[in-house]
Specification:
By secondary structure, the protein is an alpha+beta fold. The chain has helices at residues 14-28, 61-65, 67-78, 123-159, 164-187, 195-206, 226-246, 286-292, 296-305; strands at 2-3, 6-7, 30-36, 41-45, 86-94, 97-107, 113-121, 193-194, 215-219, 223-224, 256-265, 268-278, 309-315, 318-326.
């Protein structure tokens, strides 16, 4: 027998098909209800546990679904009079559960009109929709933050660049550092990035393989918030590029010491990151070195963006940078 792309063997019998359909309805979380034209119930399958079905009295909409939902169903069904008439509505059943009711007037094989109602549990669908909306809001929030960071970087880079080529070189490098940090944040489902992963990204890009062991990392591998990850990654980029471009730690085979640790600042958990880079023995180079390291990004942009503070000094024999900020620093 073929009817609207439906086929079955009539000789299988009603019992065989009944078991098949009920099992299928249970699997997809659907309820099928059949009533005659006067509203008398003739069949109910796989009713959800939250609704009541007792054998003491004939079922009714209000008896099955409660006064409020039952009244709304009765009103909707009353408008269905001719075969093909249909209506649907979604109901908040309480306790964060949602059900969709689809009602249709149909003509049975015996020529009688019957009212068919399909009830579908939409609870998981609504939860997924709420999660998706929350994720989209988070994406929008993060995107706006990232654009604000890029705007700030562009402004500061342009202010301290003497030519267009110098601006483009610095700006591209800083954008690349941001994109790498953002990749780490995205891979962690926006929970943030670990400090050593942020440092490793910069070492791999700017420090030759033979010199990577000259950057010694100690302390804790702290998981930083997304906002802190972006800005700490930017600070590490500045420090690494400066050390490679202007320093002599590679030629002299002296280690840069990097440390990250949890501390207590004003009664709150905080993170302290330090960078100690060895300098050559010529004291006369210190003023120029100090001017080069007078980076607005390191001294102003990064600490202000993570609600922290920074120390940036050229000391006898070394360049020292210290960044301290709250552990939960977020935009």
């Amino acid at each position: 027998m073929v009817h609207r792309l439906t086929w079955y063997e009539p000789q299988r019998g009603d019992e065989y098909l009944r078991e098949f359909f009920i099992t299928g309805l249970m699997d997809i979380g659907a309820t099928l209800i059949l009533q005659d034209a006067e509203g008398k119930y003739s069949c109910i399958t796989t009713l959800p546990m939250r609704f009541r079905l007792t054998g003491s009295e004939p079922p009714t909409d209000r008896g099955l679904f409660g006064e409020d939902i039952g009244r709304r169903l009765e009103d909707m069904k009353a408008r269905l009079r001719q075969p093909g008439d249909h209506a649907e509505m979604e109901i908040d059943a309480g306790d964060d559960t949602f059900f969709e009711f689809r009602c249709r007037m149909i003509t049975m094989a015996n020529g009688q009109n019957n009212l068919m109602t399909v009830v579908i549990d939409r609870t998981e669908d609504r939860r997924r929709e709420r999660l998706l909306r929350a994720l989209l809001r988070e994406v929008s929030h993060r995107s706006k933050n990232l654009l604000a960071i890029i705007q700030s970087i562009a402004s500061q880079t342009a202010r301290y660049s003497g030519s267009l080529n110098a601006f483009l070189g610095k700006f591209r490098g800083r954008l690349h550092a941001l994109s790498q940090s953002q990749d780490l944040i995205t891979d962690s489902s926006w929970s943030g990035a670990y400090f050593r992963d942020l440092l490793r990204q910069q070492i791999e890009k700017y420090v030759q393989d033979g010199a990577a062991d000259l950057i010694q990392v100690t302390g804790e591998n702290v998981l930083l918030t997304p906002n802190a990850s972006l800005h700490v990654g930017l600070a590490l980029h500045e420090l690494t590029v400066n050390a490679v471009s202007h320093g002599d730690f590679v030629a002299r085979r002296q280690r840069i010491e990097v440390n990250c640790e949890r501390v207590r600042e004003e009664g709150k958990d905080a993170v302290r990151i330090t960078w100690t880079e060895p300098l050559g023995p010529t004291d006369g180079e210190a003023p120029a070195r100090s001017a080069r390291f007078g980076s607005t990004v390191l001294e102003r942009v990064v600490p202000a963006s993570v609600n922290g503070s920074a120390v940036h000094e050229v000391r006898p024999g070394s360049v020292y940078y210290e960044l301290t900020f709250p552990l939960d620093a977020e935009a």
